[in-house]
């Protein structure tokens, strides 16, 4: 794919300040992510974690500074960005008329997966969704819907995966499986950026944390980030 001048880092935020209209939320932030790195975004409620994700995705303009993906300014409308970046944010949206399996099929086929039937089966099994595969997501529990969103994010190939509190509403067994899977994804050079309040996710799947605190960003080791969450 086309890349810009500097491709040393996959994702870079330089001197970034985030916020809304006249209201600054946090900054300056600096983040340099290489392929296969895993960074947790942590901080108290309201510190700006979701705002940062929205800014990285191009849904909100930076108040100052810049963000580059593969050496080019982020552009959510670019086909390359959408092909290479898989995102699970908040509660997502579903098509009322499609079943769980059909949602996964749509994503898998949309991303050109040749063995999409097998991939759909694998995701249904991984997330314990086989029994509800034929139902529309509107008829599922909130935890089951969260699992469908995660399955739809992880079924597709991506260089960068962005997740916003993936642990929410998952039972402990699925959380453990998910954290092991995220760690394995990094082994295959997928980069992870994950908003989380769970110290175990930091310890098991990530190597650094970006702490948003007192309107500033600070990079910590995963263990120091986990201890901050447990404070
Ligand atoms: N659309 C908006 N317009 C103006 N301010 C907003 C908007 N959305 C969020 N904010 C403010 O931005 C700040 C950061 O919100 P954000 O949702 O990024 O926090 P967060 O760290 O993700 O919180 P949480 O841990 O509760 O999910 C909050 O003070 C919030 O009130």
TrEMBL record:
Keywords: ATP-binding, Nucleotide-binding, Transport. Coiled coil: none annotated. It holds the Pfam family ABC_tran. The keyword Nucleotide-binding applies. It comes from the Bacteria. PROSITE patterns: ABC_TRANSPORTER_1 (PS00211), ABC_TRANSPORTER_2 (PS50893). Residues 11-228 form the ABC transporter domain. InterPro entries: AAA+_ATPase, ABC_transporter-like_ATP-bd, ABC_transporter-like_CS, ABC_Transporter_VariousFunc, P-loop_NTPase. One of its GO terms (molecular function) is ATP binding. PANTHER family: ABC TRANSPORTER ATP-BINDING PROTEIN ALBC-RELATED. This is ATP-binding cassette domain-containing protein. It comes from Glutamicibacter halophytocola.
């Amino acid at each position: 794919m086309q890349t810009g001048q500097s491709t040393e880092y996959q994702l870079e935020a330089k001197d970034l300040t985030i916020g809304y209209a006249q209201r600054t939320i946090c900054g300056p932030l600096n983040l340099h992510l290489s392929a296969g790195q895993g960074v947790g975004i942590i901080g108290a409620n309201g510190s700006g974690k979701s705002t940062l994700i929205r800014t990285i995705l191009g849904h909100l303009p930076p108040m100052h500074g810049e963000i580059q993906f593969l050496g080019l300014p982020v552009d959510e409308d670019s086909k390359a960005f959408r092909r290479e970046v898989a995102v699970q944010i908040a509660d997502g949206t579903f098509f009322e008329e499609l079943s769980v399996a059909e949602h996964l099929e749509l994503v898998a086929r949309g991303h050109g997966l040749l063995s999409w039937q097998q991939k759909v089966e694998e995701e249904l099994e991984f997330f314990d969704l086989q029994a509800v595969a034929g139902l529309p997501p509107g008829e599922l529990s909130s935890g089951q819907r969260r699992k469908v969103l995660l399955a739809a994010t992880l079924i597709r190939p991506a260089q960068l995966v962005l997740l916003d509190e993936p642990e929410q509403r998952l039972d402990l067994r699925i959380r453990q499986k998910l954290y092991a899977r995220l760690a394995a994804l990094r082994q295959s050079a997928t980069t992870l950026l994950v908003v989380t309040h769970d110290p175990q996710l930091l310890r098991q799947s990530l190597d650094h944390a970006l702490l948003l605190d007192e309107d500033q960003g600070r990079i910590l080791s995963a263990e120091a980030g986990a201890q901050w969450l447990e404070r």
